[in-house]
Every structure is written in C-alpha cells, then in structure tokens.
Amino acid sequence: MEKSRPFRPGPGDTWWLTLAALAFIGLDIALYVFGEPTTGWAGPAAGVTLQVLLDLSLLLLFRFPRLVAGLVLAGALLMLASDLLSPGLLVPERQLTLMTVPTITPVVLSQLARLMDRRTLLWLTAILVLCASRPWDAHWNTTPFGLLGTALPTTISLYFEARRQLLRSLRDRAERAEREQHLLAERARAEERRKLAEEMHDVVTHRLSLMVLHAGALGVVSADEAVRTSAEDIRREGALALDELRDLVGVLRDGANAGPRTLTDGTAGDPATLVAESSSVGIPTELTVHGDPGRISPTIARTAYRVVQEALTNIRKHAPGSTATVGLRYHADGLDIAVENTRAGAPADPALAGSGSGAGLAGLRQRVELIGGRFGAGPIAGGGYRVDAILPAYVPTAEGDA
Ligand SMILES: Nc1ncnc2c1ncn2[C@@H]1O[C@H](COP(=O)(O)OP(=O)(O)OP(=O)(O)O)[C@@H](O)[C@H]1O
Ligand SMILES: [Mg+2]
C-alpha cells in the first residue's frame, strides 16, 4: 500500500464543517428545550453546555483531528462517569435520544479515516463503541443505537479511505506509464534526428564537397578571367554551405544526444551581408534600417535573418532582373520586416526556379508563428512580390530564449 498523503481540506470542506457544527448546536439546544434538563449539582444547563462545546470543537476537526478526537473521547467518558456515579449530572435521567456519547460522535468518526492513522482510529472507535452500547447494561434501546452511532461511521469512513487510496495508486500508475511512453517517443525522435544527421553528413556533404573541389580545379585550370572569378565564387559559396551543413549536422546530433534544442541555436548573422550578396549577384538591393537592433533577442534576430535570406533567395530564383528593397524597423515591441521586389526583368531560369521544394515560405511562416510573430507573402501590384513579417521582441515562452 502506498504511503498516504496528508488530507488538505478545500473551501467546500470548511463550509460543510461549519454548517454541521451549527446544525448540531441547533439540535442539542432543541433537545435541551424540548427534553429534560440535567439535575445534578452543575445545574440544568450542564449537559447542553458540554454538548455545545463539543459541537464547536468540530470546527477544528480538519486542523487538529487528534485534539477533536480526544475531546469527543473525553466527553464520552465524562458522560459515562456521570451516568455511573452521579446520574443526571451531565446526561438527563430520561433522554429524548438514546445517545450516550456526544451527539457529534458519528460525524467525527466518519471523517477520521482520512485524518489520522488507522490503528488510533480503531482504538478510539472501540472505546466509543463500549461507551455507547453499554454491554454491561445491555438494552434493546441503547445497544444497537450505540453501535450504529459509532462502529458504522468508522466502517464507512475506512471503506471510502481505502477506495480513495486505491484510486490514487491506479492514477499514479497510469501517469507513470504515460511518462514512460513520452520518454520512449522522445528517444525515437532523437534516433530519427541522428539518422537524419548521418544521412545529411554522408550524402549531401559528400556531393557538396565534390562540387567545391571541382570549382576549385576549374578556377586553377581556366585561362578565362571571368570563368576563374565565377569558379572562385562557386567554391566560396560551396565552402560556406559546407560550414552551415556542418553546424546543422552538429545541431541534429546534439539534439539526438542532449534533448531539446532547435535549429535556431547559434549566432545571428547580419542582414546587411545578405543584402550585399544579393546586390553582388545582379539584384540591386537597398537596405533601410530604422530603430535600434540591440533590443531584440538573439532568437528573434536569427529568425529575422532567415526571413531576409529566404526572401532574397526567392528573388534571385523567381524574379531575376528585378530590384529589391529590404526594410527593417526595430521598435519596443519587436521588429517589422518587409522585403519587396519589382517585376522580373528577365525570364526565370527554369532549372533554378524549379529546383526548390516549394517549402521555403511555408517553413518561414511556421518558424515565425512559432515565436509568436505574423507572416505574409504574395504578389503585389505592378508584378512584384512582397514578403513581410512582424516579430515580437522576445520569444513568449519560458524556454524559447533560455
Ligand atoms: N520574389 C518572388 N517573385 C516571384 N515569385 C515568387 C517570389 N518568391 C516566391 N515566389 C513564388 O512563391 C513560390 C513559393 O516560394 P517558396 O520559397 O516557398 O518555394 P521555392 O522557392 O520554389 O522553393 P524552396 O524555397 O523550397 O527552395 C515560388 O515557387 C514562387 O512561385
Ligand atoms: Mg524559396
């Protein structure tokens, strides 16, 4: 059996406890008014005073269960002593009810299983059963009634407590199973990432490095200055792509080994470099920056870089011969990006335009929305195209920018 957790009463519990205490005070006063008073030296109200005090102790039941149990036990023993030694002192000689223990006894016993250990409860119940049923003076009136008022509530209370513990252990077990399931899924994902990293490393990196080598060789053997420059450009770009691939493979591997990490890890590049590159390959591009770039978080800066990068790549692929503008507006709430190009001045190279997977803009949208931003892309009047994004200053999650 699991170790039981302490019971914490909610506001509802406190409410009904107060109501029960008031109800029992009312009941005891009614019994006093309509029944007989006590007749001992302590006066006619001695019995009702004892009962009302015990009723009030009910308010402390959830906070001090042992104290209240002790008070009820003491009350029962006092009533028994009064009956045996000085009849009429604390219990009227002729009672309206057949109760020879405090009236709140059943309520207290019905709650104790969840408030105290079972052994103490059983001892307490045993003594109260004796007090209430009076086996030495068994009577058809008192004995069954006494048993009903003491043994029955304890039995019910123990039954419900056992049921509660069983349910809790079942729930704990279900939760544990779910956690294990989650861990297994996590491990499967890590494995997937590791395989992907291997694949990228073995296939893509291999081909790309061959291209870089060929371009290098072409640069060396060609007599034509223009070809040599282009070959050098290809070699440099290929080498940069290899660098980025290496980082990606590293991230995928690390992710597989060291838990959640995203592809956005790393330092952010400068959009100005992208703009310069774009201009140098025949798309005159103008950059305008407003505000202070220092205020945004690195994750947001990396996302911004990716947005500009993909938009400029698309322009080179799908709108050759156009001119472009890149606008970055930094403000307190984040960053607005707009990349726009005019109508294409030349037909797009089918090999280049058809080379993509068509997932560039969709991926960007996902990426932007993931960090709580908004993304839009589409043709504009005059035959051009526009990509814009509104990014927040910080990633709105606890771990996003840790
Ligand atoms: N600047 C642009 N001018 C004209 N059409 C564009 C421009 N940018 C995007 N498009 C159109 O939007 C489509 C989707 O672009 P997206 O970047 O998602 O895919 P892609 O560039 O074809 O492939 P990928 O980015 O996966 O290599 C493109 O196929 C193209 O038709
Ligand atoms: Mg694209």
TrEMBL record:
Residues 192-255 form the Signal transduction histidine kinase subgroup 3 dimerisation and phosphoacceptor domain. Residues 160-200 form a coiled coil. GO terms for cellular component: membrane. Its EC number is 2.7.13.3. The keyword ATP-binding applies. Residues 302-393 form the Histidine kinase/HSP90-like ATPase domain. InterPro entries: HATPase_C_sf, HATPase_dom, Sensor_HK_TwoCompSys, Sig_transdc_His_kin_sub3_dim/P. The chain crosses the membrane at residues 15-35, 41-61, 68-90. This is histidine kinase.
